[in-house]
């Protein structure tokens, strides 16, 4: 950890700030850079604080900074530090959850983010077929079952079909009825209509089987179309994938917990950067589903790693955090954020960092 504090701190209230840092390729954290041989910091939340410090209400504060090592990702640990007073402000974007709310206060939101999985885009036609077959496998089984039921209805409700086909044995008629029922649910209705009798029961049974088979076929086609659209959009992750395969995630990272709460499996890592997790995934993409991160923490991957895409699973506001005992500072922080939001300065800062061309990207700068 590295510490830094502002000069001219006399008669000012000191605000101890913990700054999560990382490489410039990390989307949401503060990063170090050199300008004319001098070390400086950049990042969305860093620029926001620098803008707030220009306001009269912030003149009474002296900010004392402690910087994490680059790539540090245990956000829950920093929540505990802010909660116990080791630090007064967590300078990063934090996802809200009930566990954290009991320990710290959130600022008003500074951006809209989402939890996402970064993974290889599925471009293989075979994999697409496999995905479609996997997603509708239960429907194929249901089709056979419903087809058999339809065949039984035809067998018992319209026995006159036996004479229409000139079948003498009941066993042969039974098998033929089952085949007619299944073929009707596959869209082939020639046998269904061609061998129907003119009896009332025959009419009802044919109409019943025809309507149910038509509805089922349309439903199955819609499911196939939906799966193919998801594949073409690059989502490539199904609910079955989520239940079966693990993702790679950071220990102490809210989006890792969020993934588990939604039924996913996670292999947690401590002390790894985002790039480290992506490298682990790329060495064995068949074993893991991908890397779970906040969307804007990982979105530089989309340009840096060809073939990597993001599957987005729900937007949520992101905030800074502060110690609940710092009541007046919290009021000034929130009022200051609302001020730069209304003046569009917050939007300008946000857009200078988050200008993703991904159609699935959450609307980061719409606050």
Q: Percent of residues in helical segments?
A: 40-55%
Mean pLDDT, as a whole number?
Answer: 87
Number of helices: 15
Largest sheet: 10 strands, mixed
Q: Let me know the number of strands.
A: 12
Radius of gyration: 30 Å
Alpha-carbon distance between the two ends: 33 Å
Low-confidence stretches: none
Structural class: alpha/beta
> What percentage of the residues does DSSP assign to strands (E)?
15-25%
Shape descriptor reads elongated
Task: Write down the secondary-structure element order.
Answer: EEEEHEHEHEEHHHHHHEHEHEHHEHH
Task: Provide keyphrases for this structure.
two-stranded antiparallel ribbon, 367 residues, alpha/beta
Q: Would you give an account of this structure?
A:
- It is built from 15 helices and 12 strands.
- It has 367 residues and is an alpha/beta fold.
- Strands 1, 2, 5, 6, 7, 8, 9, 10, 11 and 12 form a 10-stranded mixed β-sheet that branches. The protein has a two-stranded antiparallel sheet with strand order 3-4.
- Helix 1 runs antiparallel to helix 15, helix 4 packs across helix 6 and helix 4 runs antiparallel to helix 8.
- The chain is elongated.
- The mean pLDDT is 87.
What topology emerges from the helices and strands here?
Elements: E1 2-5, E2 13-19, E3 31-35, E4 38-42, H1 44-52, E5 61-67, H2 75-83, E6 89-95, H3 98-101, E7 105-106, E8 111-120, H4 125-157, H5 161-164, H6 170-185, H7 190-194, H8 200-232, H9 239-244, E9 246-250, H10 254-261, E10 265-269, H11 274-283, E11 288-294, H12 295-298, H13 301-304, E12 308-322, H14 327-342, H15 345-353
Parallel strand pairs: 2-5, 2-6, 9-10, 9-11
Antiparallel strand pairs: 1-5, 3-4, 6-12, 7-12, 8-11, 8-12
Helix pairs in contact: 1-15, 4-6, 4-8
């Amino acid at each position: 950890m590295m510490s830094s504090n502002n000069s001219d701190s006399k008669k000012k209230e000191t605000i101890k700030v913990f700054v999560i840092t990382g490489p410039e390729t990390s989307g949401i954290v503060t990063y170090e850079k050199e300008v004319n041989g001098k070390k400086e910091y950049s990042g969305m939340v860093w620029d926001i604080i620098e803008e707030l410090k220009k306001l009269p209400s912030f003149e009474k504060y002296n900010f004392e900074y402690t910087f994490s090592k680059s790539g540090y990702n245990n956000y829950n640990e920093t929540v505990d530090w802010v909660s116990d007073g080791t630090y007064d402000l967590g300078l990063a974007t934090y996802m809200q959850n009930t566990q954290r709310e009991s320990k710290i206060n959130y600022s008003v939101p500074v951006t809209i983010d989402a939890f996402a999985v970064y993974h290889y885009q599925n471009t293989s036609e075979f994999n697409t077929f496999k995905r479609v077959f996997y997603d509708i496998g239960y429907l194929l089984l249901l089709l056979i079952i419903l087809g058999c039921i339809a065949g039984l209805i035809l067998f018992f409700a319209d026995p006159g079909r036996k004479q229409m086909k000139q079948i003498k044995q009941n066993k042969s008629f039974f098998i033929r009825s089952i085949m007619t029922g299944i073929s009707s649910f596959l869209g082939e209705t020639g046998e269904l209509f061609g061998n129907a009798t003119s009896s009332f029961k025959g009419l009802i049974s044919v109409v019943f089987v025809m309507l149910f088979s038509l509805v089922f076929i349309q439903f199955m086609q819609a499911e196939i179309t939906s799966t193919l659209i998801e594949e073409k959009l690059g989502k490539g992750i199904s609910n079955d994938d989520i239940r079966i395969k693990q993702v790679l995630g950071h220990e102490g990272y809210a989006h890792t917990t969020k993934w588990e709460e939604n039924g996913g499996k996670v292999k947690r890592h401590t002390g790894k950067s985002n790039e480290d997790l992506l490298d682990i995934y790329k060495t064995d993409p068949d074993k893991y589903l991908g890397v779970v991160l906040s969307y804007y923490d990982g979105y530089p991957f989309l340009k840096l790693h060809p073939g990597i895409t993001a599957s987005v699973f729900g937007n949520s506001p992101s905030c800074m955090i502060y110690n609940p005992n710092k009541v007046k500072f919290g009021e000034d922080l929130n009022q200051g954020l609302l001020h730069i939001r209304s003046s569009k300065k917050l939007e300008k800062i946000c857009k200078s960092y988050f200008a993703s061309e991904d159609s699935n990207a959450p609307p980061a700068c719409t606050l």
